[in-house]
Specification:
The protein is an alpha+beta fold and about 80 residues long. The protein contains two helices and five strands, in the order βαβαβββ. The longest helix has 9 residues, at about 30-40.
């Protein structure tokens, strides 16, 4: 099974990643995906996560062909 992982804004610059396809076994967690893609670098505490273009808490059961996106916190005025 595989999923697409995307990084946006300064996360893309910080980790040098734009998009990765990750092969995984059923039951993998968001933090395990993060560890696999970033070579175990610490996940920022205030990171935002979207699964299939919908913001998520990250405790969703992932399926084949899902898309995960990591964003820094968003602010605006």
């Amino acid at each position: 099974m595989s999923i697409k992982v995307k990084f946006f804004a300064n996360l893309r610059d910080q980790y040098g990643l734009t998009e990765e396809v990750v092969d995984f076994n059923e039951g993998i967690s968001i933090s395990e995906i993060w560890d696999k893609v970033t070579n175990r670098q610490k996940m920022p505490e205030s990171i935002m996560i979207a699964i299939n273009m919908e913001y998520s808490s990250g405790d969703v059961q992932l399926k084949d062909n899902d898309e995960i996106a990591f964003f820094p916190p968003v602010s605006g005025g």
